[in-house]
Write a structure and sequence with these properties.
Elements lengths: L1 H12 L2 H28 L6 H4 L2 H22 L2 H7 L4 H26 L4 H4 L5 H29 L3 H26 L4 E8 L2 E9 L6 H13 L1 H9 L5 H24 L5
Antiparallel strand pairs: 1-2
Helix pairs in contact: 1-6, 2-4, 2-6, 4-6, 4-8, 4-9, 4-11, 6-8, 6-12, 8-9, 8-11, 8-12, 9-10, 9-11, 10-11
């Protein structure tokens, strides 16, 4: 395992896609935070670093997908994976070392965002949530990233085509993000809406009426649970500073363990050319 990790980290350090993702993440963070500072100035409000600092949790998944797909897919296309098995490495160690490498790469991407985002501190100040709140959000973000890496490692290890692995991982992320955004939009529907009436003087607002799109009861509880379970849902909630820490962290751990166990089982039975 140690040799596999050493070789993996060395190859990751030489990976151009990884460094491109690092550069894009840094630039993205700088532009987003500067835009946040500009918005705070134009609105006349003091603003808060908290409002913008965790936006990366929404987009970290696509960077994980690209890095994981290219990193693991290259092992198939270059014959490295087959050579590792021929030289006596166990499939379990190969799978887990791949997961650990891409997880560490994703944490570096996250660290780049967090460091670059500090450019907004002179104008927005430090975090209002305090050290305890910041630590909780960071831990939730790390576990969310682990869940993403588990998903994309599984896809990369089971698809021999690098292109297919990358495309499938990206579409998987985008599909989950769209689904989570739809759930979040439904949960934010108001219970009552103001009716609009036409009068002699023009358009007037009538009495509040029940909103047919408002989600309540068991359906609302299910939607809230799905938001806490899905990594993309967690990203949206962290961005909006609405996390439920214990349920979200536990969900990320369970997803990581279950998908990794399933991926290991399938990879051990996969026929390699």
């Amino acid at each position: 395992m140690c040799k596999l990790l050493t070789a993996g980290f060395f190859r990751l350090w030489k990976d151009k896609i990884f460094w491109i993702c690092m550069g894009i993440m840094c630039l993205y963070s700088l532009l987003y935070m500067r835009n946040g500072c500009r918005h705070a100035s134009l609105s006349g409000s003091a603003g808060s670093l908290d409002e913008y600092y965790f936006h990366f949790t929404v987009s970290i998944g696509i960077f994980c997908a690209m890095t994981t797909g290219m990193f693991i897919g290259t092992e198939y296309s270059g014959g490295t994976l087959r050579n590792k098995i021929v030289t006596g490495h166990r499939r379990r160690d190969i799978y887990l070392s791949g997961f650990i490498c891409v997880f560490c790469a994703s944490l570096l991407l996250m660290a780049v965002w967090l460091a670059a985002a500090l450019v907004a501190v002179p104008q927005l100040g430090v975090w209002k949530m305090g050290a305890a709140g910041l630590s909780m959000y960071l831990l939730a973000a790390v576990l969310q990233t682990a869940a993403f890496c588990a998903m994309f490692t599984c896809v990369g290890m089971l698809f021999a085509s690098r292109t297919a692995g990358v495309v499938l991982s990206i579409f998987l992320f985008l599909g989950l993000l769209l689904y989570a955004a739809t759930l979040y939009g439904s949960l934010n529907q108001p219970e009552m809406t103001n009716s609009v009436e036409m009068t002699m003087n023009g358009i007037a607002t009538g009495n509040p009426v029940p909103n047919p799109y408002y989600v309540s009861g068991l359906r609302r509880s299910i939607y809230e649970l799905l938001m806490d379970v899905l990594p993309t849902g967690q990203g949206i909630l962290m961005w909006q500073l609405e996390i439920h820490p214990l349920r979200m962290m536990l969900s990320s751990v369970i997803i990581t363990l279950v998908i990794t166990a399933g991926g290991l089982w399938a990879f051990n039975r996969k026929k390699l050319k």
